[in-house]
Amino acid sequence: MLRPFSSLRGYRRSWLGPDALAGATVWAVLVPEALAYATIAGVPPVVGLYAAPAALILYAAFGSSRYLVVGPMAATAALSAAVVGEAAAGSSADYTTMTAALAVMVGVAALLAGLLRLGFLAGFISEPVLKGFIVGLALTIIAGQLPKLFGVEGGSGDFFEKTRALIGDLGETSGLTVLIGAGSLVLILLLKRVAPVVPGSLIAVALGIAAAVAFDLEDHGVDVVGSIETGLPSFGFPDVSSGDLGALAAGSVGVLLVAFAEGLGAAKTYAAREHDEIDADRELIGLGVAGLGAGLSSGMVVNGSLSKTAVNASAGARTQLSGVFVAALTVMTLLFLTGLFEQLPEAVLAGVVIAALVDLVDIPSPVSLYRVFTRRLGQAYGVAARPDFIAAVAAMLGVLVFDTLPGLFIGIGASLLLLLYRSSRPVVTELGQVPGNGHFAALDRHTDSLRIPGVTVLRVEGGIYFANAERVRSTVRRTAGREGTTAVVLDAETVPFVDVGAVRMLDELAGDLEARGIRLLLARDVGQVREVLGAADARAELRRVYPTVRAAVAAARTGT
């Protein structure tokens, strides 16, 4: 049964201080980042603040993590811009309203998925795909923020188009804007290194506002945020048509996949440190109600944040009450402090965004995936022997060349295709007997192991089914063709399953080999394999599975 605010059960009065302190610390990080991420989504900065309070409170009520902080994030903000940009082109609704509607759609999709217990879907975005996607997305967002840092017009399109436009506009660079933006970026990165507990983004924003007011930066050509509405947002369902919702539906699923994978990863990271359990289905429900709250509050898409969750945990948070404190402080900001942000230079916001994304440009991670390679994998799979690296690079290049959502699905598609390719080409290893102990080991790994005269021993490393049955057949027939072979023993310990097509193949293979005077014997099968062999009415010799390879070899040599 779903119990709201489960993290507050057994709450102790001594936890109130740490939760309040953590809430204040997270608020100091969330405010400038929410303003900055809203600009990535293409909406007014205050929309980022609108999204936070309801999302924080509703996740605290229904999520399963004690530490996870939800709010606007760079990746989902960029995805929101891509989805809404396409849908808004054919709609009469304004862009900001469509952004709130997308948040509602993502929330509804997440809530339904959670109620239907579809949390396992997070597994369809592998870690390498998500890594590659995030790297490509971070580079694309940075390319879009650099024009604000240089005070130039910039361009739109993919990463390369934005970069080309930036290079073409560099002659119009505003020196004062570069000084403000680059100074903010350096300050944030420096504080992150030497004083990580200090909210560098908030300090940079405060100094940027102070400089803008003191030196009239807007009159000197430095762009500022401009007018921001004071007060709470309007509440209610976004004023969009059913056609608009339909146009947003497909994109909302892609946004949900990224939002859920990123948030679930953050939640699991900190749950593992405290030996807590994370319920993936409840995380979907928590994300769903948070998204609904954000959308119905005129906000934008939200999801779990690893960086703000890290701040929350390191500041001493004990429960989700810290998120409630963050929500209360954000409401106070909307009521009394938004006017301060009107003089915030856009170059400072760009610096905040770039500083947040620098750590995400994790090039060494895909490079490390390239090193995960062995000679045997290369022989078996060729270019596909590095599937994680290929999937990560496909997702990264997909984002850089084709934009965010296409890049995500290119990465997922590449990952699934490589999985199918590898499962269709199982490694079939020849075994030899190790002198002294009688165990059987791979001939190519254990040079001291010896072939059994007249008997070929093979181990199939993977399930045998319709997609790879012919490859297994051809490999067995080829090795059985060696002169003097009288029997082939298949070690089935590493075969987790077979299907009916595989049983038919084995039955036919046994008949073909028998016609050439060669026996086919099975050893060490698992229960599912034995059951399918019997149910599919395989020939008697195949149903007689030997308990060990040694027993099968002995039977082959004695003819029993």
Task: Set down the secondary structure blueprint.
Blueprint: H1 16-41, H2 46-62, E1 69-71, H3 74-88, H4 95-115, H5 127-150, H6 159-169, H7 175-194, H8 200-215, H9 242-273, H10 280-296, E2 303-305, H11 306-314, H12 321-336, H13 346-358, H14 364-370, H15 375-381, H16 387-402, H17 404-423, E3 427-433, E4 440-442, E5 455-461, H18 469-480, E6 487-491, H19 500-515, E7 519-523, H20 527-535, H21 540-543, E8 545-546, H22 549-558
Parallel strand pairs: 5-6, 6-7, 7-8
Antiparallel strand pairs: 1-2, 3-4, 3-5
Helix pairs in contact: 1-2, 1-3, 1-8, 1-11, 1-12, 1-13, 2-10, 2-12, 3-4, 3-9, 4-9, 4-10, 5-6, 5-13, 5-16, 5-17, 7-8, 7-13, 9-10, 9-11, 14-16, 16-17, 18-19
Strand order of the largest sheet: 4-3-5-6-7-8
Write down the Rg: 30 Å
Find the structural class using helix and strand composition.
alpha/beta
Query: What is the tally of helical segments?
Result: 22
Average pLDDT: 88
Q: Uncertain regions: pLDDT < 50 for 5+ in a row?
A: none
Helix residue percentage? 55-70%
Strand content: 5-15%
Sheet of most strands: 6 strands, mixed
Task: List how many beta strands DSSP finds.
Answer: 8
Shape: elongated
For the record, give the distance between the C-alpha atoms at the N and C termini, rounded to a whole number: 59 Å
